[in-house]
Each structure stands twice: as C-alpha cells, then as structure tokens.
Structures
1.
Amino acid sequence: MAKKENNQRENKPKMSWKKKLLILVCAGALLVVGVLGFIFVFVYDGFGLESWALGWSGALPEDMSLWGASSDGYYAEGRNDYLYARVTRERSTYIDVDEYIAGYHDLYIRNSDWLRQNDVTVLRDETRGRVSVYSIQVGAMPDWNDDVYTYVILRTNTRYFVRALFKYRSDRNAEEAVKVIDEFADTVKMTVSFPEKREGYDDISPEISYSWSDETLETYERLANTQRAYFGAFSADLGELEDKLGRQLPMAMTYFHIEEPLPLEKLQSWYEEGKLTELTLQLTATNNLELANAPSPLIEVISGQYDGKLREIAEDLKAFGHPVLFRLNNEMNSDWTSYSGVVNLADPELFSQAWRYIYEFFAENGVDNTIWIFNPNGLDFPAASWNSYLSYYPGNRYVHMLGVTGYNTGTYYADVTKEKWQSFKEIYDGIEKKYGKHFGEFPWIITEFASSSIGGDKAGWIEDMFEELPSYGNIKAAVWFDYADFDPAKPGTVARPYWIAETEETLEAFKKGIEGMPERFYGD
C-alpha cells in the first residue's frame, strides 16, 4: 500500500515554475490590497486624519497635517490654526497600568502643590469607559503660548495604552478645539502597529549659523576634527586631583544654577591654565529638589521672568570672552530635574521653547563664545514614547555638539533597581547605536561619566575604557565625574564611589591611560 501511494506521488504532475510565479504574484497582490484596505479604514474612515502605522487610530482634523517617526517611539503630532496634538502609543513598565500612569505621566499635572505653584485650574476630569479626559488651564503661561492642556488616555486590557496631549489658547477657537478633542476621545482605539521609518528626524545636523568669535570657531573646528579625544574632569578640588595625576588636564567642568552667579573667576583661572571649560547651566531654583513645590522654570523663562538674570549671565560670558562648551539643562528626559518633561506638564515642547529663548537672548545680547551642547540622559525616564530624547531637540540652529552620558553605576542598588556592572564598551555601544542614526554628523562629548568600584574591577574598567574609546570616532572629548553618589536612606554612605584616586590601582590606571595626551587645550 505504501509503495502504491509513493508511486502515485511520483506520477503526480509537477507544477511549472510559471504557475508558481503566478501564485506568488497573486498572493502578493492580495497582500497589497489587504494593506491598502487597512490604510483606508484607519486613515480615511470619515473622521479625518488618523495614524494606522503607529499603533492607534482616532479622529483628528484633516488640516492638522500629522507627521511622526516610529524608529524611536510610536508617535504622531500636528498643528492647525487653533490646536496642537501629539499622540503616542505607550507601554507601562509596571504590571499595574494605573499605578504607572499616576506615578509618571500624571505625577505633577495632578499634584495640588504643583498646580498651585503654577496657577493651574482644573477644567474637567472625566472618564468615558476606558478613556479618561483631563483638562487644565495654566495661568502662568505667557499670552503667546497655548495655555489649555488636555490629556486623553485610552486604557486596554494589556500594558499598552494610547496617550494624547492637546494644547490650545483659551481665547482662540476654544469651543472648536474642545469639539475636536471630544471627537478624538470618542473614536480613539488601539490598533496593530506597523513600525516604519517616517519623516521627522532625518535631517538632524549642526548648523554653524551663530556669530562666533574667531577663537570660538577655531575651538569648535579643533574639537570636531581631533582624532584623539581630549580629557577633562569635574572634581571638588581639581588642583588636588591634578597633583595626584602628576599633570594637568586640558578640560574642566563646572555647574551653576539659574539663581547663582556665573563662576567667572574659575573660568578665567582655568583658561589661563590652558583649559577649555564645559559650563553647565541648570534651570533650577531648588537644586533639583522639592520638584512639586516650585514654579516651572521653563514657563518662567519663556515668560521673561528670568530676563534680568539671563542678562547678567550674558554680560559675564562676554566679560570672560573665551569659548565655553555650554551645556544647558542636561538630562531633561528624566524625572529628577526641575526642567524635565515629567515635571513640566509632560510636554517636551516647553523645554525646546526655553532652550531657543535663551539661545536667542544670548545672541541678541552679543554673546559670541558659547558652543551649545544638547545632552539628554542615556535612558528615558519614564521610558515613554512622548518622553523620547528626540522630543526635546530644539532644532539644528540651536545645537552644535551632542553630549552623551553613560555611567557604570555598579551594583550597590542591584536589589532595588536591578542595576548591574557594565563595561565601557557595553554602555557606549548602546549609546552609539541609539544616537548615531540621528546625530552622526555632530561632534560628540562625553559630558560626564565614571565607573563605580562596587561590583567589579574599577581599575580594569578604566584600562578597558582607554583602550576602547578611540573606536568611537564621534567622541571628541570625555569628562570624568570625580565624585560620588550617596545613599539618601543612609546619610554619609557612599553608594557609587566614582573618584579617580579611590585606590592606588585606579589612580595608576588613569595615569597610564592619559600618558601622551595634551595637558593644555590652549597654548603650548
């Protein structure tokens, strides 16, 4: 019987290659028709523009001209004459989605202290089945900016949800804006996502349009073209560190906050030693503490409330007269700074507006010696599509270098945060992959980095770092954070010791790594 069946199979006519090709073509055609039908259903279903590829659908006006990119998060945004919309597909990192939304997305926009500090009035707070609508009016917002924020969230039976932010002026077409928002809330739904590269962030590159001094332009070109990264440090006592190293470093880094004076004497002293300064300005009046109990520094900046202070900083920068690597509001895509998106209405556009405001303010006041560094945190906190580091990018005119930050934090908090020991290569391979596709034309600086000693061989880490660093061609400078993180639950306890001279072994590894490197950036 088996033999007969085999003979029947052997005698069965074989399909010709032409028929096979025809079947493949037909199958392909059916697939195309199906996809086109899917597009038709979700893009033109009678309500207006919708996004089918990014994992959601919902009615929006056809004149909103949605655009977006799914390579770094599912989002789409658009604006018409009276309304701005940004819609994202999100995934909770908690099992409890409501806890995640309350603990990240809504943490400050529903906080009574933050609302009071920023003159915020709740306009409506309602739930429609799985859809919540929360609308507030920000009294502190300047007259030219949107002052009504409405957040629409669609929950599902999974960890995924859809989040939409709408903004408009309360004194311009407000009724029409509310109608559009309500229509979206009634029609929004989760869909199957089809990640694809879309327009949005394909044209990122530095534009040297700033009226720099000759020395500043020469400094930038030297950094951009160097084949070996310059080294520097942030240290509580840089002179003592250099004594231990037995040599000077060509770069140094310092911080100051918006309420503090620019450290002019320090900048001048370092310049006389031949150092290039990385100058970090943070818009915080509370040292990035008490985040809920303070006005939004971003709103204060764009409202002109800090113009007097910014004018003082501009005059001091002009008085110094030499180049600085100006790092404004680093790690904005986090949840631990006064100027972060989470703290400021969960709206990255406010950050970009404040950045451009300060840039133009300096330009109008004759500052010609600042090289601007855009420096997001290596990871987004929260890891949300709306909080992608790209959402904070202020535009090509306003950025000259990319700042990257990646620490080997060690394992002190392993039981709490599951942090693990990471090599320099593991950290910066990930950073290169993440940023390289968008910022490959920029010179990069590691604005701060270090390795803890808890959980591994710190001296070996330093040796490997110096060996691996030359393989990252975009990195033109690196600044070591020569200090420590302390455990707030145990005052005085060091959680992450980052000191270069922590041990003789770590000091010798660093001394060996910088052998032959220039000791000065300026002068012989």
2.
Amino acid sequence: MKKFTLLLIAAALLLSLAACSPVEEPAGNDSINEPPTDGADASGVPESEDNAADEVLVDIPTGHIISLSDDAVTMDGAALTEDMTDVYTVRDIVYYRAGLGFTYGEGAEEDEHSQEEADSHTVVHIASPGTYVLTGKLSAGQVAVDLGEDAESDPSAVVNLVLDNADITCTVAPAIIFYNVYECGDKDTASSTVDTSSAGANVYIADGSVNTLNGSYVARIYKSIELSEDKTEVIDSKKLHKYDGALYSKMSMNVTGNDGVLNINAENEGLDTELHLTINGGVINIVSGNDGINTNEDGVSVTTVNGGLLTVTVNGSTGEGDGIDSNGWLVINGGTVRAYACSTSGDAGIDSDMGIIINGGEVVATGNMLDAIDGASTQSYVLFNSLRSKGRTSFTLKDAEGAELMDVPVSENSFSILIVSGPKLTSDGLCALYEGSTLIASATPGGADRGGFGGFGGGMRPGNGERPEMPEGFDPQNPSEDFRGGNRGGFGGETPPEMPDGQEPPEVPENGSPSIGTPV
C-alpha cells in the first residue's frame, strides 16, 4: 500500500458510463461512451446478457497430498522431516524480529515478533517442481515455496498448490509464500495485456472445498544500509525481506478455481504479488487490514480478473487500504468483483496507477477516492459520487422503465463513491439507483466531453497519483454540511481545496453542472 497523505474531495452526485473503444479521456472529466451495439465484445464474440455468470469450468490438477497437522505433516502418507530435500518441515520462518533496533529494518514495535512466537511455527518447505494438494490444518505454520535462485529463468520451475480444505494460520508472516519459481513476466515491459499462463506460482482451489488462510506480514528487513554521518538514521538501504500479504508471491501468480472457496483473513494486505496476478475463478473472500489485493511493480504490474466471485473488504484496522490496488493496470474481463475500501481513509474500491479497464463481468466498488476508468474499457459503467453511505447493505440499479439491471450489494463500510458495471448497462436512457423502493440518484447518457467536478468528500486523484491532505476537520464517515457539495457539481459554493504543487482542479462546465447526474 502506497503511503499517501489524503484528500477527500466530495463532489456532487456524478454518474458516468464507460467507453467501448480506446478513447483518451480529458483530464478531470468523467466520460460516457457506448459499448459495442451489436452484442459483441472487442473480439467480435457475442456475449450473453448474464456473462458474469458464464463461467468456464477449469480442471483442478492432482498430485502429491500434503496433510497438514499440528502433530505431524505428511506427504502421501509419509511423515515429513527436516532431513528431506524436495519437501520438508523445519521451524525457520522468516519474520521481523523484536529488539534489533533501527539498523535491522523499517519496522515499528507493532511489526515485531519474539523468537518464541516465531519458533512455534512449522514451515512446510517445497523445493521441487510439481503439484501439491494441501489439506488439513496448521494452527501455527506456513507453506513456503522456493525452487532456488535459478528458478526465475527456468520455465520448468513451476509449482501448483491445490487447496483442498486447507486451514493455515501464521501470526508472524504470510500463511503461504512463493519465493523463487519461474517468472513469466518482464519488469522492463509495460502493457495492460499480459499472459501469465506459464507462471511458476499457481494456486488452485479444489472443487467443493472451503479453505482459510489467516496470515500476517513481514516488515522491511535490510540487506545492507548506509547511515548518516552521526550514525543515527538510515539514509539508504537495500531490501532483504518485505512481504505484505497473507498470501504472497515474489513472482507472477495465477489463482484458479470453480466453486471452491478461499477465505483470506489478513492482518495487513491480503493477496499480493511483486509482478502480475491473474484470477481465473473460484470464490475468493478477502478481509484485510490494508489493501485487499496488491500487485506492486510500479508502472508494470497487471492485476487481471477473468472469472470467479471475488469479494474484498478492508476492515480499517490499519487506518487505510484500497480494495484492489495495482501499481500498474487493473483489467476486469469477467466474473464478479466486489471491492470495498477502508471506511476512514481516502482510498478506492478499485485503484490503479496506469489504468482500470473493465471489459466484462459485474463490478461493485466503494470507497472515498476515485481512480478513473480507462477509455479502453469495452463495458459500460456508472459512477455515483458523494452518496454519503454508512451502514447500507444493498442497492438496485434500474433503467428508465424501472426494469432491474443488477443488484448492487455493498458492505457496511461507509463510502462516498460507488462504481457499478455490468453487461446489462448501456448508455441509452436513464440509469437509476434505488435503495429498496426509494430512488437515490439517476443519470442520463452523455458524450466523452461531458462531466464535472464536485465538492468535498470524494473525487479523482490528481495526475501525479498522490493524495493531497484531507481538509481539516473532515470525517468521511460523518461529513458535515460544510463538506457537502452542491446538488449539481461545482464546489458547493465553497472555495475549492488546495491542490498539490503543479496540479489544477478540473474545470467545471459552464452551467456549473456535470449534466450527467441528477441526485434525487
């Protein structure tokens, strides 16, 4: 999670529908463009109206069965010991050790763990390529995959972990971590389209299974440091370890399943990779203290969702967190995505530094900050700004005739911004948001040159990707009237917030209204 100072810019209600072909969006404007009108996707393949549910079943591989237990861990019925080479167990977990001072790493007291706590964890080491089925329970342990330093460039260095009613708890580090496997991606090549099918890190969710990972994290530990002249602070360093997610991979990773369930409960971040992540299916539920999903190679990483039911809820325990955060692109091609950012910070349900592209599936995302949807998206979306929602659980999206377009489930997290996308959305006619039988807001279609900028409480991140400071006294959960924008955009009669150096607030249309959204 990038640490930014926060600005919540609450706008009057805005709604917009996304583009069907690559269109460069004017800075500061929300764009509305039509998706293909012939019912085909960008490749010309017809889509059904319910394409979010049109999941293609995938084969789940089989392999060595690793039975997890606090008493003994076995593989194919034989007990694992530290004397083995391909798969073995030993109590040597990587963690952030207490009491070693500021030259050890960047961690604070809350990131530290005692040697005793660390030694209570059993680490199941996998050091050989293959498919391993994990079943059973480790109440203090970790599964660590490391095929050696040469694995990154070896296409055969592939490990498939099949979770089949596995339950792993780790209180000092990730519950599952991939260190060294084949890296199919290229950190020097930036593109929103990546193929991770040959990735060395693969997680499969077995059909009919329910799996739980309760994981922690490892704060940054130094490999080497340079100290200031007075030897009181670190002025430069190289990283030895830093693993933020409960399920973590240093290499690109695929997560695949059908109806199997994976629950991730994360002290810090949930599901992380250091390059690319592709989710192909499965029922994945993430509850995290910080970002639910993070892919963290700046300007390069791609998070791709092709299928499944993905629900991400940031519980606010760290005071911040995006639902899904890609330091490169976020591409949603199918499945159902529900991403709920932290209630109390300027974070987004879906966040991407390089662009958010929605080509299919159903998307519901809530937060208090907006990252614009890329004009290359081929599926329409609608944006509701400054909803002031707290403790609500469900909305419904309808067309002008009152026909239901899709259910819009939300978490109890408060939010000011709601993004909704689905295959039934089009740019023809009125789009209305209901809570029960009560009309909350509506919008009419518009072109790419229409849009606006509202008052405080929710808005778009400035062009440098950083979040300016939150207006003094602003509480995103209980905004006062002073922070509520006018009904039709503009700055609600108030002075616009101070923008970061070199940034200008987006222009408001001449009529003072975005003209694409009308609150009720």
